[in-house]
Amino acid sequence: MLLLDYHNKIVEDTLIEKLTNPPEDGKYESVEITIADFDGVIFHIFSDQNSKNLLNVSVSIKCFRQLQTLGVDNVLKTAYGNYFTSPEQGFDATLQIDLAKPPSDIPKVAREFALLKRNCLAAAFYKAIADVEGKKGSDVIELKYRDEEAFYLKPESDRLIVIFSIQFKDADDVVVGKVFLQEYADARKTISNAPSVTFSQKEPPLELKNIRGLKADGSQGYVSFVLFASHLTGAKKEKTVDNILTFRNYLHYHIKCSKAFLHTRMRNRVRAFLQVLNRAKSEPQSTEKRTITGKTFKRADEKDSEIAPEYNI
Length: 313
Hints:
Largest sheet: 5 strands, antiparallel
Shape: flat
Low-confidence stretches: none
Number of strands: 12
Radius of gyration: 31 Å
Number of helices: 8
CATH class of the largest domain: Alpha Beta
Structural class: alpha+beta
Mean pLDDT: 86
């Protein structure tokens, strides 16, 4: 199955283009780009009004105020160093780079800038993983990163439980989603150390019993991941955070792909049935006779034969 990118491709390509193609006359052009990303996130790439060689990348995230209580500012300062600057008005975090002084590894820096959204949301996971590494449990961390959806982190002494609340707007998505998530559960039989995955419809998991305002209707689903220490240490730590953060979009992407595949198969089957019906149409029987001169006539003692109706399918 296809894995979605963890970074924003437009941000990465824009930075690479601006850093690798400096103007010959030294006069930088103004840049003004607004990008809509998944989960209602907005990126804004723009040039400084006074110094056009200074390029800024800002991001707006719905749950950024909650992330600040979990140490997102420290995470961004550690990840970006001097690139991290005061946020643009109306946005939550801003990075700034001098195009006149490009870094030695341009693709690497461009990729880090494109991971700004991921690094912001990862702050909540770093806090929860630190609690697991400290062998101590804590209260559920709730992040309302979408208008009607949220994800929850429940650190325990030996595991981290991640729960997504997913709003299905189409009843068919619930059915396809259940089949899709069943594959996750079956994967544990063949893949060692795979995390446990459960899906519940309407009823929230017991870990969320103290959370207020949870919906419990047919359109609301809850997906729970149980991550153990082997998933949260060493090189697997960052990979786990990447995959978990893109899970919601990954799920809906494959649900839409599955529905498109089913619709294509149905259209092909209908087309095949129509071809069979068209081949089965009977030819009308002609009772006309022709003379040697080519004139047509009908014998008086013959009754008019019924001509089979023609169907236009």
